[in-house]
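re: the backbone from monday

yeah here it is again, tokenized this time
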């Protein structure tokens, strides 16, 4: 089979990239190859469903620029394809005096990133937005929204097929060979000759990248994020989205409350090292994957730097009482009995050999290949912008 582009990975980034490639050049012969029998089975289908505004990211970074561009493209796509979403806004809440300067930094950063109508909230004003919240100051971010990214991904898939692209499910890529200036992508079922491979393998993006880039300098370290759900009769405690001020030394946003587009209210996610890349349960262990994470020099550096926070997250993972206590900082009324287990997602976080966690999106080019090697949050929000960026790099090669 002869293709112009083979996209590996049927998560939201692979699908958005395939769609943007088709939008830019409808004649491209393109296929998306996904190892699962359905789209969006991993990070995309297990995320918080938030349409991020671009508040947090370093001005000028790929995360900041792609989030804001992606936000606009996503809303346009949802409007054109009747995907339901809601721009309900969110509040970020400082619960101690020490957090106030960090909250002020976020407000400034949001302005630098071009967010309009951010509103600083006093203690009293916080209650107007979320009557059950406890905080001393806050910010209201009107742009933030909620959507079901599995539905978005399925719609991207429909649009790819309508544009003449193919999607092959249930095929795992096991090898990429080089032959006469082309790449041959080999799965258990077939071989695909192609001018270009685009790797959007998420939790396995480093493994797939390793098929075209020798001695890759990044490794994916999987971090599981566990959720609780609020029991139905307690959902009144949360109107929309309530976030803490994130720890600037830690790459995740901290446990928060999210009203979900699919219904219900989730609390979480925490962030613990996953002992298996696609391991959604605490008991899931893949010894060789775990050994690989622990042996990676960059991870050891991260463990040394974040051990205290990491232990706290692990403790919260095993102790519902400790998880509840973290949530009570935002809503003191929440009790253990108000929460039921609510599933988990695993984040693919790239970690470089020596420097630690890679903060920004990372796209690495190789001969006949473009590898998306770090696409953590807000990559679902940013997907169409990341896709646009990769498509522009790809089209330079044709
Ligand atoms: C807990 C959690 C909460 C999050 N919350 C948000 C949020 O609220 N808002 C937001 O914008 N972002 C959020 N994110 C981030 C966002 O979900 C991810 O950045 C995004 O889904 C990444 O998409 P992806 O396509 O790169 O990865 P994935 O969705 O993981 O897709 C990668 C695909 O590649 C396939 N694959 C891997 N190897 C192979 C192979 N060898 N052959 C074939 N197929 C292969 C996998 O099966 C998978 O389907 C969250 C993430 C997590 C985990």
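seq for it, each position gets an aa:
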């Amino acid at each position: 089979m002869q293709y112009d582009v083979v996209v590996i990975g049927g998560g939201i980034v692979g699908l958005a990239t395939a769609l943007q490639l088709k939008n830019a050049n409808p004649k491209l012969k393109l296929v998306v190859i996904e190892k699962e029998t359905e789209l969006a089975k991993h990070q995309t289908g297990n995320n918080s469903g938030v349409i991020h505004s671009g508040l947090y990211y370093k001005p000028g970074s790929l995360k900041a620029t792609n989030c804001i561009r992606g936000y606009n493209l996503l809303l346009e796509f949802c409007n054109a394809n009747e995907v339901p979403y809601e721009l309900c806004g969110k509040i970020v809440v400082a619960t101690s005096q020490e957090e106030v300067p960090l909250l002020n930094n976020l407000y400034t950063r949001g302005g630098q990133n071009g967010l309009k109508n951010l509103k600083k909230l006093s203690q009293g004003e916080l209650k107007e937005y979320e009557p059950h919240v406890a905080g001393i100051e806050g910010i209201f971010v009107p742009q933030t929204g909620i959507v079901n990214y599995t539905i978005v991904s399925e719609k991207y898939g429909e649009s790819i097929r309508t544009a003449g692209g193919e999607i092959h499910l249930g095929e795992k890529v096991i090898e990429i060979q080089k032959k006469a200036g082309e790449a041959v992508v080999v799965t258990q079922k077939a071989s695909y000759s192609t001018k270009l491979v685009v790797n959007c393998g998420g939790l396995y993006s480093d493994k797939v990248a390793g098929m075209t880039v020798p001695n890759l300098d990044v490794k994916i370290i999987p971090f599981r994020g566990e959720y609780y759900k609020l029991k139905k009769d307690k959902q009144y405690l949360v109107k929309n989205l309530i976030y803490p001020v994130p720890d600037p030394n830690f790459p995740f946003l901290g446990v928060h409350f999210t009203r979900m587009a699919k219904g219900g209210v989730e609390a979480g996610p925490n962030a613990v090292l996953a002992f298996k890349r696609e391991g959604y349960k605490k008991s899931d262990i893949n010894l060789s994957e775990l050994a690989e994470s622990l042996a990676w020099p960059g991870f050891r550096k991260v463990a040394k730097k974040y051990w205290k926070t990491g232990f706290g997250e692990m403790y919260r993972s095993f102790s519902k009482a400790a998880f509840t206590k973290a949530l009570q900082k935002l809503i003191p009324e929440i009790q253990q009995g108000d929460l039921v287990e609510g599933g988990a997602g695993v984040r693919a976080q790239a970690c470089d050999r020596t420097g630690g966690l890679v903060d920004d999106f990372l796209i690495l080019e190789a001969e006949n290949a473009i590898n998306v090697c770090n696409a953590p949050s807000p990559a679902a929000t940013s997907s169409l912008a990341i896709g646009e960026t990769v498509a522009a790099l790809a089209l330079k090669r044709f």
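The first strand starts at residue 2 and ends at 8. The longest helix spans residues 297-318.
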